[in-house]
Each structure stands twice: as structure tokens, then as C-alpha cells.
Amino acid sequence: MASLWEYANPVKFIRTAETVLPWVSILATVTLVAGLVWGFFFTPDDYRQGSTVKIIYIHVPAALMAINVWFMMLVTSLVWLIRRHHVSALAAKAAAPVGAIMTVIALATGAIWGQPMWGTWWEWDPRLTSFLILFLFYLGYMALWEAIDNPDTAADLTAVLCIVGSVFAILSRYAVNFWNQGLHQGASLSLDKEENVADVFSTPLYISIAGFILLFIALVFLRTRTEIYKRRTKALLARERLG
Amino acid sequence: MMPDLGKYADAVLSSYVVSILLLVVLVVMSLRAAKKARAELQKLEDRRRG
User: Would residue B5 count as lying in a domain?
Assistant: First the structure.
């Protein structure tokens, strides 16, 4: 089996992306459409939340991705800091806008869901607040990449920012457990049958989550390849200017 | 075909519309950026090859 580090080679990464991307894209589209269509059209209303329970098929996967994309960025940033593989730094850069959009979706659908259920669009609840801070970290992370001309310096500084922001990614996930207060409920999915949402809701939810994960994988392959192309273009232009 | 969403129809529909719109924008922008980056690199490499 090929070593994982082989994919740190940009040529190898691009070749793999060319092969994998069409399949992952098709799988992502099919899974996402299946999960959302099933959730929207073929699930019953909840006895307390009525039809708003259908928002779960977007809100939960988006929130899950918002947190886990940051952890993916943390891992690739650490790989950059320790092993200096450019592809891993570029993968973190490529993932950030995807994570930011997932955070916006989680915040927006949470607010829309919260209004009829809690009677308010927003509350400075621990989970909601840490999610908002996580979104600001995403914005800061992307801004920092754009603000620094030297790509290696940008990769170094954004990696450090990513490590700092991980605190809020953890808080976004566990705030409900840390501070037993606020409006937001605990996790919707649990291995504990008592705590987990009913099967009629959880099956399409798992499919929707799989769709969001596959969409993220497809986008990261695509966007990382784009970043490699941009970096190569920049290097060639610099070489042209020198001689 | 359309489920009866009752009094929460606005909330449910707006959640889906906003989210799907954001995802579509993200995908389209990523595809456009990919196409542009590839074309620029190709152009530069062609020029170098003469």
C-alpha cells in the first residue's frame, strides 16, 4: 500500500484527484440528494417540534462539518508545521471556505429553527456563542492567507491561528456538556438508544451526513488541486521575472 | 407530493432554500476557480515551451 506521505507530492496528489474526483462528486450528489429528499418529503413531523424537525437534515450535518473541517485543518496544519509538506498547508487553505460556509449554514438554520421553537433568533448560549466565534476564526484564517504574500509565512501563521481556534471548535462541540445551561439541546445523535433521535429521523439524517462529508471530500480535492495550480503559476511567473 | 408543513412552512422552506443556495454558490465558485487556475497554468506552460 502506498504511504500517505506520497500524496504530499503535488504531482501524485493531482493524479489522485483526477481519478477520485468524478466518483466522489457523483457519490456526494446522489447521497446528499437522497438524504435531503428523504428527510424533507418522507419523514413525519415531530410531536413537539412539528415540521421544523425537517431542518435537522441540514442543520446537524452542517454543524458537524463546521467543527470537523476545522479539525481536518488542524491536522493538515500540524503536518505542515512538522513535516513542511506544501500540499497539506494548501489542503488546509482549501478547506477553510468550505468550513466557513458550513458554519454559516449551521448558524442560519439554527436561528431559523430557534425562532419558532425558542421564541428567539439568537441567544448568547454557550454553544451558539462558541459557534459564532468559530465562524470569526474561519474568517480570520482566510483573511490571514490573503494578507501575506509569502506562501510559507502565510502557512506558518495560519497554522498557528488554526491551533488557537481549535479551542473554539472543541467548545462548539462540547459547550453543552461543559456548561449545563443555555437553550441548545445536547447531541441529536448518540450511541445511547435512549438519547438518540428515533430511527425514522436518524436514518435519513445519517445519509445526509454522509452526503455532506462526501461533498466536503470532493470540494477539498478540487480546491486543493486549484491551490497547487495557483502556486505553480506563481512560481513560474517568479522564475520568468528573474531571468 | 409537497408535504404539509403547517404553520412552520416558512421556517422549513427558508432553511432549505438558504442552505442549498449557499452550497450551490460554493460549488460553482470552486469549479470556476479551478477552471481559471488550470487555464492560467496551461497558458504559462505553453508560453514557456514556445
Answer: no
